[in-house]
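Need residues for this backbone.
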């Protein structure tokens, strides 16, 4: 039946491409037990799926599709995340479901390894105009896509930094993945059979230094997905974790951590020793559940939280708009008047991080 449908669709491909936004699924905030990249295939009827597959095959250049609530995203031909979004509307749905219940208006969210910006724009909408989002992405290709998605949705409570995180300041080589697996960029080596399109020299700094430079007065949730640099990123955020006790959504993957001298066990122990409890998304429910430390971490997404509900409630009651005002005014503005601004980081006198802000007041 599907072959016959494809045959009938070929003459209509150009018409279908014109209406591709109407074929896209909007994201639904609910658990999807056992979800993984590619499991979208069972989420739609065979006819609609075949139609969308045919449209995807003929897409040329980036296109805009609706995603969640009133948010839209650019999708890119040949990119696995874009494909998942068009064909099912789903990307890490269990994580987004958790985030939807744990991000509140006025909070501050930090997206480390923002890639094309799905978590960034979702969080920006959730925390609202009184909240703030800091998105960090070192890859020039993916930083441009992150910026495009922020601008597409006219989000003014987001700041973007093109820098990599670690436990020290300096320079490093970023191994850049090809288009299909653009989310696999790494400071180490690929954990999967991922093709590389080359390397890029990037600036490396600590999250503690960024937090200090931006004079952040609250941090509520941090998402970390940095393909093996999770351990050193946490080491470079020790003061931030101690001061703000944020919830952390992070990937723990031995297959990538091993290439940067770390392991899932090291990440787990680091967090436990600092008062965090860790939950992993249960394959049968799609919800976070308390677990003993696994012997091997096979690309597990986990939630690390402190018993700080009182702390969180107190923070929620204090000056929600104060944080964003601090972010806007806490650094010197320089550079051409092209909508892009640059800040000098606390850890370097020579490097400028690229940041998007509201236009500077004269």
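Answer:
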């Amino acid at each position: 039946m599907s072959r016959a449908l494809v045959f009938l669709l070929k003459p209509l491909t150009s018409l279908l491409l014109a209406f591709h936004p109407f074929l896209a699924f909007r994201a639904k905030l609910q658990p999807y037990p056992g979800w993984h990249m590619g499991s979208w295939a069972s989420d739609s009827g065979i006819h609609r799926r075949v139609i969308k597959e045919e449209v995807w095959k003929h897409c040329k250049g980036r296109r805009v599709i609706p995603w969640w609530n009133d948010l839209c995203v650019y999708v890119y031909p040949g990119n696995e995340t874009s494909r998942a979004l068009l064909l099912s509307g789903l990307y890490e749905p269990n994580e987004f479901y958790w985030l939807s219940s744990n991000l509140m208006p006025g909070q501050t969210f930090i997206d480390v390894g923002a890639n094309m910006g799905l978590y960034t724009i979702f969080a920006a909408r959730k925390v609202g105009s009184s909240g703030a989002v800091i998105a960090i992405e070192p890859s020039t290709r993916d930083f441009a896509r992150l910026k495009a998605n922020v601008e597409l949705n006219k989000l003014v409570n987001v700041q973007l930094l093109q820098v990599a995180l670690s436990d020290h300041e300096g320079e490093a080589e970023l191994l850049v993945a090809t288009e299909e697996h653009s989310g696999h960029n790494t400071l180490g080596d690929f954990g999967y059979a991922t093709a590389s399109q080359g390397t890029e020299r990037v600036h490396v700094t600590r999250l503690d230094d960024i937090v200090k430079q931006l004079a952040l007065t609250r941090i509520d949730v941090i998402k970390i997905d940095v393909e093996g640099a999770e351990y050193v990123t946490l080491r470079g955020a020790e003061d931030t974790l101690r001061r703000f006790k944020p919830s952390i959504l992070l990937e723990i993957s031995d297959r990538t951590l091993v290439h940067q001298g770390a392991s899932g066990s090291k990440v787990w122990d680091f967090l436990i020793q600092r008062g965090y409890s860790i939950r992993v998304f249960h394959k049968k429910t799609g919800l976070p559940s308390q677990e003993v430390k696994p012997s091997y971490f096979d690309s597990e997404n986990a939630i690390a939280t402190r018993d700080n509900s009182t702390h969180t409630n107190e923070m929620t009651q204090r000056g929600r708009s104060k944080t964003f005002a601090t972010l806007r005014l806490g650094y010197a503005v320089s550079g051409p008047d092209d909508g892009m601004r640059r800040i000098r980081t606390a850890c370097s006198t020579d490097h400028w991080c690229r940041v998007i802000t509201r236009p500077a007041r004269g």
